């Protein structure tokens, strides 16, 4: 597999993990402004990273969660979970 592709996917997974943890924390500490700022900052980073990945390698999700270029890219392998 392409090393850059793998690194980009790892970056996305790291951001997703961070956001899950911050989300869980904010569930019990909804007034923590610093945590909320971090959550929003990481969320923007994730959106940017996902857009970059999908522009280079195709969609990360199907069923309308990610748009596709022509021809339909979802059928191209490897799929994100296969890496």
Written account of the structure:
The protein has one domain (3-82). It has 2 helices and no strands. The protein is elongated. It has helices spanning 3-28, 33-57. Helix 1 (3-28) runs antiparallel to helix 2 (33-57). It comes from Garciella nitratireducens DSM 15102. Keywords: Capsid protein, Virion. Residues 7-82 form the Protein CotJB domain.
Overall 3D shape: elongated
Proportion of strand residues: under 5%
Global Rg: 15 Å
Task: Profile the largest sheet.
Answer: none
| Whole-number total of structural domains | 1
N-C termini distance: 8 Å
What is the share of helical residues? 55-70%
Query: Number of helical segments?
Result: 2
H/E series: HH
- Provide the low-confidence segments as ranges: none
Mean pLDDT: 85
Count of strand segments:
0
Q: Which structural category fits the helices and strands? A: mainly alpha
What is the gist of this entry?
By secondary structure, the chain is an all-alpha fold. The chain has helices at residues 3-28, 33-57. 61% of the residues lie in helices and 0% in strands.
Write the layout of secondary structure elements.
Blueprint: H1 3-28, H2 33-57
Helix pairs in contact: 1-2
List keywords for this structure.
2 helices, 0% strand, single chain, mainly alpha, elongated, virion, Spore coat protein JB, 83 residues
